[in-house]
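ARCHIVE CARD
CATEGORY: sequence design from structure
SOURCE FIELD: tokenized fold
FIELD CONTENT:
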């Protein structure tokens, strides 16, 4: 999903810096590297660095809690949570292998890790956030089956279905980044990239075709599908919620829809889970929509968007990976109870793994 103004330094090796003349935006830094001038004022650099480090820590801590809870508590080891687990793995990888390196690039406007790892970082920067988007599509599909067709949910959503969906999610995200690894994304703009980059930066320019297609297939299309899906879920859920309320007030014994009390209890849990996922989807759209809106417009403005704007919008998108686990912990009672047990003495009690959360 990462397609920002964040381009390969290998393309800058033919720049005027190598010919003995410094471009106006290239400076020799205290690290003996030739980079663009920092966009962050020195007096704010430490504050921004601390804020970024805190968001990275929250990402690792929160996602590690969700992963640990699913692995430890048997009640959470249900088929739908396969997607939750895999999403947390993708998000924690963003915090481990993407955010720390991008943080230094944002603050110092310089790449300290070599040209080879720059391309690897581009790959991870595109691959992992795209995988997060695809996971939300899978979770949306699961919620749609659970709410819209509860009687046939277990028949339609099987272990085989989950495996196929997960394989499609990870492999599809991998295919998305092939143009990046083959340098197709700079076809037609190589000269412009060489003029605007410095040898020791890791800035990733992309042409109009890849930006437009990438934004459509990795954000606009999946978000559109999920929005329509959740609109359908919302309509049906409201109807079911009305009947659930009537059941709770003793107005119905065996309801007109044919659900007994145990089925209503199960359906209520599904509604709560759907509410949590809906909030996660909404936060995801808020975090990433400004970034994708900018990348679509920027090529038609001759790539004139300021680097500090890119860095801010891209970082906000990455912060979404740190927010997700806290949304699960805050809005999903089962996960909230599991996390409370993890931080209490009850964790050492016999049989706690099988406890009712």
């Amino acid at each position: 999903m990462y397609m920002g103004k964040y381009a390969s330094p290998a393309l800058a090796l033919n720049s005027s810096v190598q010919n003995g003349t410094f471009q106006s935006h290239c400076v020799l830094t205290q690290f003996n590297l030739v980079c663009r001038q920092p966009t962050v004022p020195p007096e704010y650099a430490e504050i921004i660095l601390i804020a970024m480090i805190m968001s990275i820590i929250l990402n690792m801590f929160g996602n590690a809690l969700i992963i640990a809870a699913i692995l430890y508590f048997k009640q959470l080891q249900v088929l739908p949570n396969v997607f939750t687990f895999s999403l947390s793995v993708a998000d924690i990888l963003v915090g481990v292998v993407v955010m720390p390196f991008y943080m230094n690039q944002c603050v110092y406007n310089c790449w300290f890790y070599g040209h080879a790892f720059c391309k690897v970082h581009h790959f991870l920067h595109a691959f992992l956030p795209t995988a997060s988007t695809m996971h939300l599509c899978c979770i949306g599909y699961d919620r749609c089956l659970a709410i819209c067709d509860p009687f046939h949910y277990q028949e339609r959503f099987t272990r085989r279905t989950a495996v196929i969906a997960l394989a499609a999610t990870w492999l599809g995200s991998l295919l998305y980044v092939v143009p990046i690894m083959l340098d197709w994304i700079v076809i037609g703009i190589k000269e412009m990239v060489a003029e605007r980059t410095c040898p020791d930066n890791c800035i990733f320019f992309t042409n109009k075709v890849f930006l437009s297609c990438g934004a459509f297939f990795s954000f606009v299309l999946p978000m559109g599908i999920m929005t329509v899906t959740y609109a359908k879920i919302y309509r049906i859920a409201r109807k079911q919620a009305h009947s659930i309320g009537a059941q709770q007030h003793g107005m119905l014994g065996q309801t007109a829809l044919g659900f007994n009390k145990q089925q209503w209890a199960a359906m209520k849990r599904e509604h709560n889970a759907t509410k949590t996922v809906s909030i996660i989807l909404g936060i995801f759209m808020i975090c990433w929509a400004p970034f994708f809106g900018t990348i679509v417009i920027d090529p038609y403005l001759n790539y004139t968007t300021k680097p500090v704007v890119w860095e801010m919008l891209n970082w906000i998108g990455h912060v979404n990976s740190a927010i997700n686990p806290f949304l699960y912990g805050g809005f999903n009672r089962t996960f909230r109870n599991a996390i409370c047990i993890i931080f209490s003495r009850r964790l050492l009690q016999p049989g706690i793994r099988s406890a009712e959360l």
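CARD ANNOTATION: The CA atoms of residues 91 and 321 lie 5 Å apart. The first strand starts at residue 26 and ends at 28.
SHELF: design records, drawer C
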